[in-house]
Design a protein that fits this description.
heterodimer, A: 397 residues, alpha/beta, Rossmann fold, five-stranded parallel β-sheet, two-stranded antiparallel sheet, 16 helices, 8% strand, globular, disordered N terminus, disordered C terminus, B: 326 residues, five-stranded mixed β-sheet, 12 helices, 21% strand, Alpha-ketoacid dehydrogenase subunit beta (chain B), THDP-binding (chain B), thiamine pyrophosphate (chain B)
């Protein structure tokens, strides 16, 4: 049974959902914290919002179904990758489970000429950019460190050291401004990364140079085992004010709100109004990675409370409420989802190990005498294991 | 005039000016590089002539300087960033080592990182703490970076041109105590390869290999040794990554003795790498073990002690004598 079919089988229960959402857990917004921007309640009711409604006025039933499809397929891909790790096909996987709305909402707000700097968990954004999902798996299988061409989809390589890419985004955006282009840049990072000095420096640089960049923080409440209390004493989005640009907290499990808020932030960037910080308040429903064990540091009740706010169930409830999708749509999507899972499985299993000599490839663009020397020495060493000389390299594969 | 007599700082300044003039993608970034022209005036007058959009005074954040330079390079620019002093580079070490050096390989060659990081380095100017260090080995250890250091005005001019044209990240260590030394620069010359060592003085009895600020000391030592009848060859290595081992090997197989000299601490320094490789390459040619002269395994001392700390003429000659005594 797939994750999606599990999700589809359950209906959001308004009463229990409300009760759960109200349960006291460490990561709930505190009473003193301001409201987050929300256009869809966890029960799938559309909430009016004077500031942001205009940014989703063009959304049709068809585009809603598109967002739903994006989220379902992303979750399916993610679940498949987790399974592939359990089967030993991947060394590691960082699941985005629970963060689909934040990623699809923000990802679908982007134009082709915008440029994305992801962390290592932006599988949903990659999907929106048209990056083949199987490309994302190479680094988790250990056949490369990324390897896709960032320029093809304006989607940079995954960055594993947290926060580093926010500076690349600020610099790229400085370049966009120099070029006089009206493209925008979006930098993804998390609540844990917000403690990194590079994130603070990227805020400073982008503010000082009025760079067209949106800082999109997915506050998923947990930095591996550390709750947000270990990273911050004020709500994250409020930090922006100290750097001289606006910050906003959005319901990160509400795909419509994420789309609206990101569109607004991108519009600011495009029109020369500089950076903006978006804090998507969401939840990492799975483990940090397949190597993690969340039972050691967080309670099941907290996860259950967030499951009631599931981004996919929420949009499904809205689609059904609005009669914007019928059973045929959901059934077709289920089929498509299965096909995607199968394609990913097959692609990963067919992924060849790199040639031994790939160690020495692309260390430098213009070459380096030492790399050349070591490559030749290693080739000779490998060849020495066979009577037929160079044939040993082939057999070694 | 194609040939001018310029101090090293001015030669680099002229080189940067040419780069800004010929390639609109070249940017200068750093702390105080604009109106002030840098604390050593290496970028003097460039902002006035090329504007604040090309010669950019940055916030005082080294990681931010290098991190945004990476982003600008991804956008198609060729940033030349200044780290104000050697000891200030470490906040940027993560961006340099973890991001800049590896980006080309991570993308399987699909993106390039034409970023030059200029670092005034080394001692001898009576500075306070963190202003006199020689951290080149910490960078040479990292694959993906290229490390060079000019010792003359001509090299300052031409090596900077080549570093900016390189599609790889280049860390350009400028010997700050030589900034005011004048030398001839032929701006119409055809420069040799960036990473090739140069025989600066020929000799037959022993080879001194050095780079950056120590080349001058080695030339003085060779002159002093000549008065005692010893013929010392001096190599200016010019590049610490890659190192031109072929030129060193050729010299050593002639002189049969090698002393490597640098300001940086001897322990794990460039001298250690050169000694190991030359021992492998030229074992049967050597009449003496490769000796090293350099800094001690101690923090760079207060200025009143730097004359004792820095390898000077006598320390180099002492090593020459020890080698010849084998």
């Amino acid at each position: 049974m797939t994750v999606e079919s599990t999700a589809a089988a359950r209906k959001p229960r308004r009463s229990s959902g409300t009760k759960r959402a109200g349960a006291k857990t460490a990561s709930q917004p505190k009473a003193s914290e301001p409201q987050l921007v929300q256009l869809l309640t966890p029960e799938g009711e559309r909430v009016k919002n004077d500031e942001y409604d205009g940014y989703v006025a063009d959304i049709t039933p068809e585009s809603l179904r598109g967002l739903y499809r994006d989220m379902v397929l992303t979750r399916r891909f993610d679940a498949e990758a987790t399974s592939l790790q359990r089967q030993g096909e991947l060394g590691l996987w960082a699941s985005l489970l629970g963060q689909e709305a934040a990623q699809i909402g923000s990802g679908r707000a982007l134009r082709d000429d915008d440029y994305v700097f992801p962390t290592y968990r932006e599988h949903g954004v990659a999907w929106c950019r048209g990056v083949d999902p199987t490309n994302l798996l190479g680094m988790f299988r250990g056949v490369n460190h990324g390897g896709w061409d960032p320029k093809t989809n304006n989607f940079h390589l995954y960055t594993i050291v947290i926060g580093s890419q926010t500076l690349h985004a600020a610099g790229y955006a400085m370049g966009v401004a120099k070029d006089g282009a009206d493209s925008a840049v979006i930098a993804y990072f998390g609540d844990g990364a917000s403690s990194q000095g590079d994130v603070a420096e990227s805020f400073t640089f982008s503010a000082v140079y009025n760079a067209p960049v949106v800082f999109f923080c997915q506050n998923n409440q947990w930095a591996i085992s550390e709750p947000t209390e270990k990273q911050m004493r004020v709500p994250l989005y409020q930090r922006a004010q100290g750097f001289g640009f606006p910050g906003v907290r959005v319901d990160g499990n509400d795909v419509l709100a994420c789309l609206a808020v990101t569109r607004a932030a991108l519009e600011r960037a495009r029109t020369g109004q500089g950076p903006m910080l978006v804090e998507a308040f969401t939840y990492r429903m799975g483990a940090h990675t397949t190597s993690d064990d969340p039972t050691k540091y967080r309670a099941d009740e907290e996860r259950e409370a967030w499951e009631a706010k599931d981004p996919i169930l929420r949009l499904r409830a809205y689609l059904e409420r609005e009669s914007a999708a019928d059973e045929a749509f959901f059934a077709a999507l289920e089929k498509e989802s299965e096909a995607l899972g199968r394609r990913v499985r097959e692609a990963v299993r067919a992924m060849p190990d790199p040639d031994h000599m790939a160690i020495f490839d692309h260390v430098y663009a213009d070459g380096h005498a030492l790399v050349d020397e070591e490559r030749a020495q290693f080739a000779a060493y490998e060849a020495s294991f066979s009577d037929s000389g160079a044939g040993a390299v082939e057999e070694g594969k | 005039m194609a040939v001018q007599k310029l101090p090293l700082a001015k030669a680099i300044n002229e080189s940067l000016r040419v780069a800004l003039d010929t390639d609109p993608k070249v940017l200068i970034m750093g702390e105080d590089v604009g109106k002030l022209g840098g604390v050593f005036r290496v970028t003097d007058g460039l902002q006035k002539d090329f504007g604040e959009g090309r010669v950019i005074d940055t916030p005082l954040a080294e990681s931010g300087i290098v991190g945004t330079a990476i982003g600008l390079a991804l956008r198609g620019y060729r940033p030349v960033v200044e780290i104000q002093f050697d000891g200030f580079v470490f906040p940027a070490y993560d961006q340099i080592v973890t991001q800049l050096a590896k980006m080309h390989a991570r993308a399987l060659g699909k993106i390039k990182m034409p970023v030059v990081i200029r670092i005034p380095y080394g001692g001898g100017i009576g500075a306070v703490e963190h202003h006199s260090e020689s951290p080149e080995a910490l960078f040479a250890h990292v694959a993906g970076l290229k490390i060079v250091s000019p010792s003359t005005s001509a090299d300052g001019y031409w090596m900077m041109q080549q570093a900016i044209q390189s599609d790889d990240p280049v860390i350009f260590f400028e010997p700050k105590r030589r900034y005011w030394d004048k030398g001839e620069v032929d701006t119409e010359a055809i420069p040799g390869p960036l990473h090739k060592a140069r025989v600066t003085r020929t000799g037959t009895d022993l080879t001194l290999a050095a780079y950056g600020p120590m080349v001058k000391v080695c030339l003085e030592a060779a002159a002093a040794a000549a008065e005692e009848g010893k013929s010392v060859e001096v190599l200016d290595l010019r590049s610490m990554s890659p190192i031109d081992f072929d030129t060193i090997q050729t010299s050593v197989e002639k002189t049969r003795r090698l002393v490597v000299v640098h300001e940086a601490p001897v322990f794990y320094g460039a001298g250690a790498e050169i000694a190991a490789r030359i021992t492998e390459r030229s074992f049967y040619h050597l009449e003496a073990p490769v000796l090293r002269v350099g800094g001690f395994h101690a923090p760079y001392p207060p200025a009143r002690l730097e004359e004792e700390y820095l390898p000077g003429l006598d320390r180099v000659l002492d090593a020459v004598d020890r080698s010849l005594a084998y």
